[in-house]
Amino acid sequence: MGIFSIIWMIIIGFIVGALARFFYPGAVNMGFWMTTLLGIGGSLVGGIIGSLLFRSEGGKFHPAGIFLSLIGSLILLYGYLNFVK
Length: 85
Known about the structure:
Elements: H1 3-23, H2 32-53, H3 66-84
Helix pairs in contact: 1-2, 1-3, 2-3
């Protein structure tokens, strides 16, 4: 994994995290890094959901698309706001 892959992961993670914060009802107070981690974690959760619903060739894990990443981020955001905070 190169430096550009890490930079793109941060950018896409922030976009997905910001979308999750936008679609979640109510005010969500998070900084840039927590929003980015929310989006990256949501992509992992979305990838797990996607691998459970749609079997990939060879059984390998693949990252989720924007839609499943958003669903995963919303799940993580719900858990964070209701159980951690």
